[in-house]
Protein backbone atom coordinates (compact mmCIF):
# COMPACT_ATOMS: atom_id res chain seq x y z
CA UNK A 1 0.00 0.00 0.00
CA UNK A 2 1.48 3.35 -1.03
CA UNK A 3 1.67 6.37 1.27
CA UNK A 4 -1.05 8.13 -0.75
CA UNK A 5 -3.32 5.11 -0.41
CA UNK A 6 -2.71 4.93 3.33
CA UNK A 7 -3.38 8.66 3.61
CA UNK A 8 -6.65 8.26 1.75
CA UNK A 9 -7.64 5.59 4.23
CA UNK A 10 -6.74 7.47 7.41
CA UNK A 11 -7.06 11.15 6.50
CA UNK A 12 -10.10 13.31 7.05
CA UNK A 13 -11.10 16.34 5.00
CA UNK A 14 -8.40 18.32 3.20
CA UNK A 15 -5.29 17.34 1.29
CA UNK A 16 -2.31 15.88 3.15
CA UNK A 17 1.02 17.69 3.48
CA UNK A 18 4.12 15.83 2.37
CA UNK A 19 6.22 14.78 5.39
CA UNK A 20 9.88 15.77 5.61
CA UNK A 21 12.32 13.41 3.93
CA UNK A 22 14.67 11.33 6.07
CA UNK A 23 17.56 13.41 4.73
CA UNK A 24 16.03 16.79 5.59
CA UNK A 25 14.90 15.53 9.00
CA UNK A 26 18.39 14.26 9.81
CA UNK A 27 19.98 17.48 8.61
CA UNK A 28 17.67 19.61 10.76
CA UNK A 29 18.33 17.52 13.88
CA UNK A 30 22.09 17.54 13.31
CA UNK A 31 22.15 21.32 12.83
CA UNK A 32 20.15 21.83 16.02
CA UNK A 33 22.39 19.46 17.99
CA UNK A 34 25.52 21.25 16.89
CA UNK A 35 23.96 24.66 17.52
CA UNK A 36 23.39 23.82 21.19
CA UNK A 37 26.74 22.06 21.55
CA UNK A 38 25.62 18.51 22.30
CA UNK A 39 27.35 15.35 21.16
CA UNK A 40 25.51 12.41 19.59
CA UNK A 41 26.37 10.38 22.69
CA UNK A 42 24.70 12.94 24.95
CA UNK A 43 21.57 13.06 22.78
CA UNK A 44 21.41 9.27 22.65
CA UNK A 45 21.71 8.89 26.42
CA UNK A 46 19.07 11.54 27.15
CA UNK A 47 16.68 10.26 24.48
CA UNK A 48 16.95 6.59 25.49
CA UNK A 49 18.36 5.54 22.12
CA UNK A 50 21.66 4.16 20.86
CA UNK A 51 24.36 6.48 19.57
CA UNK A 52 24.44 4.42 16.37
CA UNK A 53 20.75 5.06 15.76
CA UNK A 54 21.17 8.82 16.32
CA UNK A 55 23.95 8.72 13.73
CA UNK A 56 21.67 6.88 11.27
CA UNK A 57 18.92 9.47 11.78
CA UNK A 58 21.29 12.38 11.17
CA UNK A 59 22.64 10.76 7.99
CA UNK A 60 19.13 10.11 6.67
CA UNK A 61 19.57 6.34 6.82
CA UNK A 62 16.78 5.73 9.37
CA UNK A 63 13.70 7.57 10.58
CA UNK A 64 12.62 7.43 14.23
CA UNK A 65 9.22 6.45 15.49
CA UNK A 66 7.01 9.26 16.77
CA UNK A 67 7.93 8.65 20.42
CA UNK A 68 11.65 8.51 19.59
CA UNK A 69 11.41 11.72 17.57
CA UNK A 70 9.68 13.29 20.57
CA UNK A 71 12.53 12.14 22.83
CA UNK A 72 15.20 13.50 20.48
CA UNK A 73 13.38 16.80 19.94
CA UNK A 74 12.87 17.19 23.68
CA UNK A 75 16.58 16.58 24.25
CA UNK A 76 17.39 19.27 21.69
CA UNK A 77 14.95 21.74 23.26
CA UNK A 78 12.49 21.87 20.38
CA UNK A 79 8.95 20.61 19.81
CA UNK A 80 8.17 17.47 17.84
CA UNK A 81 5.44 19.49 16.09
CA UNK A 82 8.12 21.15 13.97
CA UNK A 83 8.42 17.85 12.10
CA UNK A 84 4.69 17.06 11.86
CA UNK A 85 3.16 19.35 9.22
CA UNK A 86 -0.03 17.27 9.37
CA UNK A 87 -0.24 17.29 13.16
CA UNK A 88 -3.45 17.84 15.11
CA UNK A 89 -5.03 21.25 15.37
CA UNK A 90 -4.94 22.95 18.78
CA UNK A 91 -8.31 21.92 20.18
CA UNK A 92 -9.91 19.64 22.77
CA UNK A 93 -12.88 17.39 22.21
CA UNK A 94 -14.39 14.67 24.37
CA UNK A 95 -15.47 12.92 21.14
CA UNK A 96 -13.09 11.84 18.38
CA UNK A 97 -14.77 11.39 14.99
CA UNK A 98 -13.16 8.86 12.67
CA UNK A 99 -14.23 10.86 9.62
CA UNK A 100 -12.43 13.97 10.90
CA UNK A 101 -9.04 12.46 11.75
CA UNK A 102 -5.97 13.22 9.68
CA UNK A 103 -2.96 11.01 9.24
CA UNK A 104 0.57 12.31 9.68
CA UNK A 105 3.89 10.69 8.90
CA UNK A 106 7.55 11.24 9.65
CA UNK A 107 8.60 9.38 6.53
CA UNK A 108 6.37 8.68 3.53
CA UNK A 109 7.49 5.06 3.36
CA UNK A 110 6.89 4.22 7.00
CA UNK A 111 4.24 4.61 9.68
CA UNK A 112 1.15 6.76 9.46
CA UNK A 113 -0.06 8.22 12.75
CA UNK A 114 -3.48 9.46 13.75
CA UNK A 115 -2.84 11.56 16.84
CA UNK A 116 -6.04 11.73 18.85
CA UNK A 117 -6.90 15.01 20.53
CA UNK A 118 -6.95 15.10 24.31
CA UNK A 119 -10.51 15.43 25.58
CA UNK A 120 -9.85 18.34 27.94
CA UNK A 121 -7.02 20.67 29.01
CA UNK A 122 -4.34 19.12 31.25
CA UNK A 123 -5.52 15.56 30.54
CA UNK A 124 -2.96 12.98 31.66
CA UNK A 125 -3.65 10.40 28.96
CA UNK A 126 -2.47 10.74 25.37
CA UNK A 127 -3.40 8.47 22.48
CA UNK A 128 -2.56 7.68 18.89
CA UNK A 129 -3.54 5.14 16.23
CA UNK A 130 -0.51 3.89 14.32
CA UNK A 131 -0.62 2.20 10.90
CA UNK A 132 2.46 0.00 10.32
CA UNK A 133 3.27 -1.72 7.00
CA UNK A 134 4.27 -5.40 6.79
CA UNK A 135 7.90 -5.93 7.71
CA UNK A 136 8.13 -2.73 9.75
CA UNK A 137 10.58 -2.89 12.67
CA UNK A 138 10.96 -0.03 15.14
CA UNK A 139 14.09 1.01 16.96
CA UNK A 140 14.74 -0.04 20.57
CA UNK A 141 13.66 2.84 22.78
CA UNK A 142 12.60 3.81 26.29
CA UNK A 143 11.01 6.87 27.86
CA UNK A 144 9.13 8.03 30.92
CA UNK A 145 5.59 6.98 31.83
CA UNK A 146 3.40 4.01 30.89
CA UNK A 147 2.38 2.50 27.56
CA UNK A 148 -0.90 0.68 26.90
CA UNK A 149 -1.31 -0.94 23.48
CA UNK A 150 -4.43 -2.40 21.89
CA UNK A 151 -3.88 -4.16 18.57
CA UNK A 152 -6.81 -3.28 16.32
CA UNK A 153 -5.69 -5.24 13.28
CA UNK A 154 -2.78 -7.41 12.20
CA UNK A 155 -0.10 -9.34 14.07
CA UNK A 156 2.72 -7.65 16.00
CA UNK A 157 5.71 -8.90 17.95
CA UNK A 158 6.67 -6.59 20.83
CA UNK A 159 9.97 -6.85 22.68
CA UNK A 160 9.71 -5.36 26.17
CA UNK A 161 12.49 -5.60 28.72
CA UNK A 162 14.16 -8.41 26.81
CA UNK A 163 11.00 -10.55 26.49
CA UNK A 164 8.90 -11.13 23.35
CA UNK A 165 5.11 -10.76 23.27
CA UNK A 166 3.16 -11.80 20.18
CA UNK A 167 -0.10 -9.90 19.85
CA UNK A 168 -2.98 -10.53 17.47
CA UNK A 169 -6.05 -8.40 16.82
CA UNK A 170 -7.86 -7.73 20.08
CA UNK A 171 -4.84 -8.37 22.33
CA UNK A 172 -3.40 -5.73 24.68
CA UNK A 173 -0.05 -4.95 26.27
CA UNK A 174 0.61 -2.66 29.25
CA UNK A 175 4.09 -1.90 30.56
CA UNK A 176 6.35 0.76 32.14
CA UNK A 177 7.80 2.82 29.29
CA UNK A 178 11.18 2.88 31.05
CA UNK A 179 11.71 -0.72 29.91
CA UNK A 180 13.57 -0.92 26.57
CA UNK A 181 10.98 -1.82 23.93
CA UNK A 182 10.40 -2.13 20.20
CA UNK A 183 7.80 -3.46 17.79
CA UNK A 184 7.78 -5.57 14.63
CA UNK A 185 4.95 -6.22 12.18
CA UNK A 186 5.31 -9.96 11.64
CA UNK A 187 2.08 -10.28 9.66
CA UNK A 188 1.42 -10.00 5.94
CA UNK A 189 -0.93 -7.01 6.14
CA UNK A 190 -0.79 -3.53 7.61
CA UNK A 191 -1.14 -3.53 11.40
CA UNK A 192 -3.14 -0.92 13.30
CA UNK A 193 -2.34 -0.19 16.92
CA UNK A 194 -4.04 2.05 19.47
CA UNK A 195 -1.47 3.52 21.84
CA UNK A 196 -2.50 5.18 25.10
CA UNK A 197 0.24 6.58 27.30
CA UNK A 198 1.23 9.20 29.81
CA UNK A 199 3.96 10.68 27.60
CA UNK A 200 2.73 14.03 26.28
CA UNK A 201 4.09 13.94 22.74
CA UNK A 202 2.14 16.98 21.59
CA UNK A 203 2.37 19.84 24.12
CA UNK A 204 -0.67 21.46 25.67
CA UNK A 205 -1.75 24.70 23.97
UniProtKB/TrEMBL annotation:
All residue ranges annotated as the HTH cro/C1-type domain in the record: 29-83
The keyword DNA-binding is annotated on this UniProt entry: yes
A Pfam short name: HTH_3
Keyword terms of this UniProt record: DNA-binding
GO cellular component: cytosol
Ranges for region Disordered: 1-26
InterPro entries registered for this protein in UniProt: Cro/C1-type_HTH, Cupin_2, Lambda_DNA-bd_dom_sf, RmlC-like_jellyroll, RmlC_Cupin_sf, TransReg_Diox_bact_type
Identification of the protein by name: XRE family transcriptional regulator
Organism encoding this protein: Shinella granuli
Amino acid sequence: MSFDEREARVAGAGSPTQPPSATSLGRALRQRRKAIGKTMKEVAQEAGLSEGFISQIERGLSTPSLISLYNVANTLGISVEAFLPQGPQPAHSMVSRASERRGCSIDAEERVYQILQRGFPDARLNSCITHMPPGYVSELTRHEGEDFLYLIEGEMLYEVGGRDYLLKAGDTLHFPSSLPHRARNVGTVEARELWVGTTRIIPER
